[in-house]
């Protein structure tokens, strides 16, 4: 078979099945058009968040966010546990806290209510309307799942947290993005402060307790002084209790001074353990817009369907041509001629 014969065979074959090929191409185009119309327009915001810690904390770790990201394994159970900020951002607690937030600019509605209205107002062609959940808890749970699908949290090479959220309206995308940043910052600060806060509260309670004991000893000494106003205070029955009270007070005063120093130290540690969360890139417009064009998808379906099914119908002819060319190259032209003579009776039948 020559190249001219190959071209003629392909043309004749396509001519016979042109109706089928065109029909399939149109069906493929319609399918991709429906797919494009099913997907609503989405907006994606991006924000970068960075925690500022003290210099001592930075020198104790291999990177600024090593403790935050959990890259160092504690040597013992008693050491501070690391906080994985990605898991914190994607946790159910964080998502449901964001869903329960109220937006004062939208009639003080919760994010969950706004998200439900947003999904129903920006549906695709084949998306069903979402019914309002029976109670507030179910609504927040549903909104938390929707937020999970739209949220992406990663850490870049500079150890900054990159938060991306994809939604169907730019206004709600902005509100939800700031909600995630606020909740993540709040939870992270609370977790970092927890141990230092407990130490400070314990030290403060100890100082207050010792102060009360000192006041009690002072009151006892005053009462003894009142009772011994016209008596001889050199007697043991009066002198020993007063000396014991003074000794106790001196010991308590030393403990009180130590407790106050511990309280001040705990207050310093609490301030030191409090990180400052800075938003380097705010989730403000312009956003990345994804809009699937029905025209482009239709052309892709039409052209792709036409080419694929054309190749499907002429694949046998092309394979036979390459087989004959291979036989010619390997066995010579005589083999191909014999094959042609043998195929003629069969083709005549």
The helix tally amounts to: 12
CATH class of the largest domain reads Alpha Beta
Q: Considering DSSP H and I runs of 4 or more, what fraction of the residues is helical? A: 55-70%
Distance between the amino and carboxyl termini = 20 Å
Total domain modules:
3
User: Which structural category do the helix and sheet elements fall into?
Assistant: alpha+beta
SSE string: HHEHHHHEEHHEEHHEEHH
Whole-angstrom Rg: 40 Å
CATH topology of the largest domain: Bacterial polysaccharide co-polymerase-like
**Beta strands, count:** 7
CATH architecture of the largest domain: 2-Layer Sandwich
User: How is the biggest beta sheet arranged?
Assistant: 5 strands, antiparallel
Mean pLDDT: 79
Catalogue the unreliable spans.
54-82, 342-349
Organism: Ginsengibacter hankyongi
Protein name: Polysaccharide chain length determinant N-terminal domain-containing protein
Membrane topology: Multi-pass membrane protein
Domain Polysaccharide chain length determinant N-terminal: 10-99
